[in-house]
Amino acid sequence: MGETLVEMDGISKDFPGVHALADCRFELRSGEVHALVGENGAGKSTLMKILAGVYHRDAGQIRIKGEPVEIDSPRAAQNLGISIIHQELNLMPHLTVAQNIFIGREPRANPSFILDEDELNAQARALFETMHLALDPRVRVGRLAVAQQQMVEIAKALSFDSNVLIMDEPTAALTDTEIRELFRIIRRFREQGAGVIHISHRLEELKQISDRVTVMRDGRYIDTVRTDEAPIDRIISMMVGRTIFEATPEVPEHPDPEVLLEVRGLNRGRMVRDVSFKVRRGEIVGFAGLVGAGRTEVARAVFAADRPESGEILVRGRGRRITTPNDAVRYGIGYLSEDRKRYGLALALDVETNIVLAAFRRFVGFLGMVRAGMTRATAVAQVKHLAIKTPSLRQKARNLSGGTQQKLVVAKWLTAETEILFFDEPTRGIDVGAKSEIYRLLNDLAHEGKAIIMISSELPEILRMSHRIIVMCEGRITGELTAAEATQERIMAYATQRQAIAA
């Protein structure tokens, strides 16, 4: 590691009702990958948005290569050689890949007001070649999968020839192969003398790629340590201020024999083909598979978020006609989407309203008047039960951290008293402390007799939490394993349609 590229000292930032940062500091050196970790709401993204010019600091100083600077806009940050890849994708779906990467910097033909599309696409292809990325620069971004869109964001940041690159959860939507390729790109970037700031909840991957780790908690700086000298347990303890015990889940050994949900011959396009399965009371069934296997599509079809073409859905042994999500909720089915901001929450509404939204009719009294006392009491109880971190029930959902938003979605479905719950990537983008709480919540729900279907791309999570594991590939169920039979190798064998490896 070489000279100091970035120094941030005494950084503070307040938002209405939220004290986001207090006297924080951070340092980045050339040729370094510096990990920034902490629970959701710790202030990591806020600190980096100040460095990237998205937010303006209330106090403190920023120095770039030893010189004090004012970064009052993203353009000012780019002029100083700082690029950021945000956790939330910031692309324009109606434009092509190349147009998104070079927006505002497009090559011009003669006359100069005409865009040179051929040169634009050629520049994008040259960038993709250095990244070993097989992507057509002429494709509209809206047609790409989330993982491909993430790689476009990374390409866009690299195209600025920055010497400071901030990556906020860049691997959340990537496959293992794509993560390895990203790490190769990061290492090449570091070898050129640049510095990388890597925000992630995946501590194991940080051990692979980072040189130092800075820990934040509750908007404050805790410590900076060398990655090779800091065991993961120590990092976790600094993050949460307590020890997290990753014990074996206490799920019931044998679920109740009553089948709460049975799906027969479900079909919808190429992604859901003749899918049949059962889930019993008190059972956690894990759905595993590679990206694009059809797991989310099955959940959305059962919930009627997408209308199935054929198939039968039985709830407690009785066939039910579910044509809308309202029908699904009426029969006790809830769906926690992997995209909680788009499908799980009303971001412009407050915490209390989001909690009661799925069961709103219950809180409407005579002449259509909302029983405000009931809604408040229910919201207070759920906030306490799930330890939802919010300054008040009037806080807008959009202002909460990712982990807190996920808890808010859970609170909504618990308020609706649903008995069959689809959890789609329930811990994506959530820190280790919040993960432990979500696992505990899933166990509690199973003990209460709920039927839970958990879709997850993290095999250790699937193995840890499930009574049974259903594996999908290309829209079909290709295997089913009990908890005793399941291994990562056997799951991957079914996920790639290869013959299962013997136990």
Which sequence of strands runs across the widest sheet? Answer: 6-7-8-3-9-10
The overall strand count is 20
Annotated CATH homologous superfamily of the largest domain: P-loop containing nucleotide triphosphate hydrolases
Q: Shape from CA axes?
A: globular
Describe what you observe in this structure:
The protein folds into three domains: 4-240, 3-Layer(aba) Sandwich (Rossmann fold); 259-332 and 418-503, Rossmann fold (3-Layer(aba) Sandwich), CATH 3.40.50.300; 346-417, no CATH class. Helix 13 (372-386) crosses helix 14. The chain has 503 residues and is an alpha/beta fold. Strand 1 (4-15) and strand 2 (18-29) form a beta hairpin. Strands 6-7-8-3-9-10 form a six-stranded mixed beta sheet, sandwiched between helices. A six-stranded mixed beta sheet has the order 16-17-18-13-19-20, with helices on both faces. It has a four-stranded antiparallel beta sheet with strand order 2-1-4-5, covered by helices on one side. The chain contains 17 helices and 20 strands.
